[in-house]
Predict the structure.
Amino acid sequence: MRNFFLLSASTLAGLVAVHSATAQVDFAEFDLKNGLHVILHEDHSTPIVAVTVMYHVGSKNENPERTGMAHFFEHLLFEGSEHIARGEFDGYVEGAGGVLNANTTQDRTFYYELLPSNQLELGLWLESERMLHARVDGTGIETQREVVKEEKRQRYDNQPYGQMMPTTFDRAYAEHPYRWTPIGSLDHLNAASYEEFMDFYKTFYVPNNAVLSIAGDLDIKATKKLIKAYFEDIPAGTREIPRPTIEEPIRTEELRDTIFGKDALPMIVQAYPVPAQGTDDYYAVEMLNQVLSGGESSRLNRRVVDEEQLALFCGAFNFGLEDPGLTFAYAMASMGVDPGAVEVAMNEEVERMRVELISDLELQKLKNQMEAQLIRSQRSMASIAESLANYHLYFGDANLINTEIERYLAVTPEDIRKAAQTYYAPEQRVTLYFLQAPTAETSKQ
Amino acid sequence: MNRLNTLRTALLGGFLAIAAGLVAQIDRSKAPEPGPAPIIELGTYDLTKLDNGLTLIVVENRRLPLVSWNLTLDIDPVFEGRKAGYLGLAGSLMSTGTATRSKAEIDESIDFIGARIGTSADGAYASSLSKHTDALLDVFADVILNPAYPQEELEKARKQALSGLQAGMTDPNSISSNLRAKVLFGDKHPYGEVETPASIEAIAREDLVNYHATYFRPNVAYLVVVGDITPEAAREQVEARFGSWEPAAIEDRYQPIPARPEGNQVCFADLPGSVQSVLQLTHVVDLKPGHPDAIAVSVMNSILGGGAFSGRLMQNLREDKAFTYGARSAMSTDPVAGRFTAYANVRNEVTDSAVVEFLYEIERMSTELVDGEDLQTTLNYMTGSFARSLEQPETIARFALNTALYDLTEDYYATYLERLNAVTAEDVQRMALTYLRPNNLYITVVGNRAEVASTLSRFDADGEITYYDAFGAEAKALDAAPEGMTAQTIIDLYYAARGGAEQLDGLKGIRMTGIMEPAPGMSFEVVRETLFGKGTRQAVSMAGNEMMAEVVTPNAGITRSQGQQAPMNGAELADASQDLYAAYLLHLPELGMTATLEGIDGTKASPEVVMTVEGAGGKKELRFDLMTGLLVSERSTREGPMGSVPVTINYSDYQAVKGMQFPMVAEQIAGGQSMTIQYSRIELDPKLDANAFKID
């Protein structure tokens, strides 16, 4: 059917109300009887709508003998449903003029469709079909097994430094499920039975384990009615949802290792254990990383890359997770540079953060950077919908989309130094060198 | 003030289910009907020209307090030649220092206000919160107008670039990009240029300074401003900061579009150890932006390999055959030369099958009319894409810029959806016939040569694959041997270096004793005993117990493993018979073998002469050090239960025994495993019992 654009009063780009620098994101939220939490954000700037569902299941919820299930399910949920034949799911969205995709992390799986706003109901139908009775059958499982194998080859095995993430998590965690990453093990996927797949679906893909978050050109009242029509009858899940309570023991001695691969230049990766997202110390760690790695003038870039020219790039980022996560400090050594020299420079900058306080000017820089980041994150309906879902799923407070900035801005130089002392201690870290394997010819000399 | 017209499209159909009044009864068994379709206003932009020729385009959008500034130079592509890479540096180094600011000062100023800035050979970009506009523009204008190109920064960037090139040598995507540029455009075209270590070394500061002085001129520049600012305020800022920017005439340079190959060409760059092939099928396309065919061509491409998941390539190669994580196609327009590329990363074993499917789908576009429903789905998808792109105010700005750059009609974008939705199945087929060339394209592969290459020669029009290195240069396997050098010369030199052909041939026998330690704690004794011309025996033992042995006489040979004995077949015996001679290369005719001189391998730290010897026992590649003449390695293929396995034996640590040279270390590498024999004793003409070589 043809979906052309007709007259509508609600679409005048360029005349939307002015927002202040601390723009408020308004939203409505409610629960259905089956436990599904719904968040709606109304914005008429463009006639589009982002329909998203976040399920509170990720790789950390997996059975250690069946890793990769959560990510595999992300693939399976495109196979259709009782009323949607194989291969049709994508066609419905694209035929309506939209796009769709999904992604899986250690903690949650996120599905989204971006549609013209007159196709909102289509989005609800598709996501409710998935939640109610997704197609989990042998053909789909076989096909997606092969696709996931190719994904693993492309993103990890054939990609430069593709093994960096899985290897670092594996070394950094001895007990916690974060020791494996969402891509999981192909052997486990091959061994999984049909019953195990159905079991996974019935346990995790239930309304009481999900957030439906929609942002865009919608009418809240009308949308609420439609949501009830499509989602209310979906039965709540009855099984207990396994959420690991393992506390990773604190490391008392640095773990160091070397991994050989094909890539030409040495990569140094250090993982420091950091607190879970949303905790008080988490924000101090975020600001700490901003000092180390935010922008060209940041500590690591300026010293290691620019002034001493030891590395092609050097930075630090926080892998903020629901349970205590990791900060990755990393560098790719320049040609002819000993990775040990790069590490020394990185360690010295981290040590400075543990000893010195940042200046007032640096603190102001951090705040300005955070403010700009916040504004930029509101540029699309898709990112607003995801933010709202995140804040509810992890913290039970969608309004953090408006208030979380305060927690960043409240961090003091003392907090930053204290965070560095607590979490960036040499004996707690994992330091890995990824080096090129010597070839037969080179080893003979 | 210019205005992109309000978009109106003729409506056909369009179900009028008004969502607000809907009862809570839904029919889950089928997809719901859409609501009334919204209209989109493209919005307005403001275009003016300053006295110095600088064109200013402003799109005011107050939704967020952000402003972005985007400068584009409208110039013909520049050919760099032996200094490939200087354009990139001329661009990126603009922000590493000006007449009044050091790099550290620039970095600090930008980071302090949480802003972003970027400079390139054909423009510059900056964005910040609107309240920081003055501070941002101070730096933005300075780097555009007054870059200093400090020598120190050039040297830093050069070092970075060289490191980057080294990293790129093991990155299949990087290699693929170089390969594609070179095969499509060759060495003499700006689009075919690839940075190499040599070209990066050759860049001088003057090159950067001259480039900037020549091309960064207001009369070829467009400055697009988007966000929380009025056209008046933007103009005021730009006049103040860029008003005194001097114009200068710039030469036009015409670049021809290269020819396509006469038949499909397979171009392979080896990246050993790859588990996937980075596969592309590509050819040039003569299609300029704004051409009347451009919209129908993009529909055709979307059906073939565009969209998120519905393209034919994706449905075939991923959803149906699971060859790949993603298969797509791209068709680009360009003032000089557009490109068509269909691409996917596929696992090694299915590379050839993937090529078959790619060619099938590309050909099908011109032999079959697309199904009406599929066409409609595609048009809907592209309509939706267009609408969704309007969420970002930068899109309007880009429309305005394109209209100016490519001389599009004023209502090009206002009428875009109308023209898009008028495309028919016949149009799509005609575009495929006109613009797709399934028989004149390059099939580029970056992957595992040993495993994959031989399966692809059937796709090459003359059956010969061309090989390339990481920089897209043709990889010469070997250099030609010097005049007058023959296989015999090499053999003679080898035995001279070993202490003399006569001395070696005059030996009656030999015993070589050594140790092999494949893993810590595992130690095997290896002993070879030979009565030349009569028999040879090699035994591997642990703590005095024989684990494995082989015995060869002129007529028969056996292998023994853990007590079980098996005869050698003809090929194995022929191969093992070489050990009945002290200098078998002097006896090739008796062994039924021939030797061929292949060439010189100059890619080694120490150049090697490469020779192949061939006979009933198979084919072996022998490598001799060019300087010393000694044998350094031999490579052959062994048949195993899993198929053929390449085997390499490296010889080293030649020591003198009674005036003759013998390698004391032999390292065998097969199937990724390495085993080294370290010889401790070589006895010449030892006392040996002929019965030791009896075969029952």
Remarks:
- The radius of gyration of chain B is 35 Å.
